[in-house]
Amino acid sequence: MIICSVPTTPDGCLLLTPGLLRFVTDNDLSAPFMVFDIGVKIASLSGISGKLKFTYRTYMKYIDMVQKTETPPYNVKILIPDDWELTTHIKLAKAWLKSQERKVIIDKLTTLGVAEIKEILVIRRIIKPLSLVDTTPFKEFLNQGYIYGIPQHISNALTDGSNIRCSTHPDTCIQHARLIINTISELDEKAEFHLWAHQSPQY
Predict the structure, then answer these.
(1) Which of 11, 88, 97, 99 is geometrically suited to a Cys-Cys bond with 83, CB 3.0 to 4.6 A?
(2) Which of 54, 35, 34 is nearest to 43 (CA)?
(3) Distance (Å, rounded) from C-alpha 5 to C-alpha 74?
(4) Is 163 helix (H, G, I), strand (E, B) or coil?
(5) Helices (runs of H) and strands (runs of E) counted in the chain
(6) Is 149 helix (H, G, I), strand (E, B) or coil?
(7) CB 180 within 8 A of CB 195
(8) Tell me: the pLDDT tens digits for 84-137?
(9) Are 119 and 146 in contact (CB under 8 A)?
(10) pLDDT in tens, 50-81
């Protein structure tokens, strides 16, 4: 397990989000592992095209920062842009994966010398009453080599649209994560998972 944060963790992983960029130092940018995260602002933007453009500009900003260092990161994980509403979430993921913007980002990272590039697909709204898990909305994304993302600051795994704050209900969030991991692992034997909680740096 690798933990990513700002500043860079002892394992050498840096989490880049729009809200945390002001805390990133030149030394952090030499990290061998990085996660490109789109942050929460994307949820307030209207329209798929607007969300795609915001994602592209944000990730290009990260690449420009990394480009100034002498050694590129070995591994970069890219969060596929997401939305809290399931229908928009699926449409946005499909649009990004087919987009020219995504191709440019991946080509830039490859040219920069990044050896491994993986993408994180956030899993949302799949737990029904009685802890039944319905992966149908994500069926076409399974077994495609994506890492499955499970937020651990707020769980939005329930199909009823409710959100559970993990700081006040940690056991519930852990239970949701276990249900998702166990169910998807049965459908994708090579499944990898990315669990994260956005926190401000502590100085």
Answers:
(1) 88
(2) 54
(3) 17
(4) coil
(5) 4, 10
(6) strand
(7) no
(8) 899 999 999 999 999 999 999 999 999 999 999 999 999 999 999 999 999 999
(9) yes
(10) 999 999 999 999 999 999 998 999 999 999 99
Is-contact 154 195, C-beta < 8 A? no
Helix axes of 86-98 and 48-67: crossing angle, nearest 10 degrees? 50
Structure tokens at 107: 């080509």
Residue 107 burial class via C-beta count within 10 angstroms: exposed 0-12, middle 13-18, buried 19 and up: exposed
Q: Are 145 and 104 in contact (CB under 8 A)?
A: no
What are the C-alpha distances in Å from 112 to residues 25, 107, 116, 132?
20, 8, 11, 44
Give which of 105, 110, 81, 108 is closest to 93, Cα–Cα: 81
With residue 180 as reference, give the H or E element that holds it. Answer: helix 170-187
Report phi then psi at 105, rounded to 5.
Answer: -60, -50
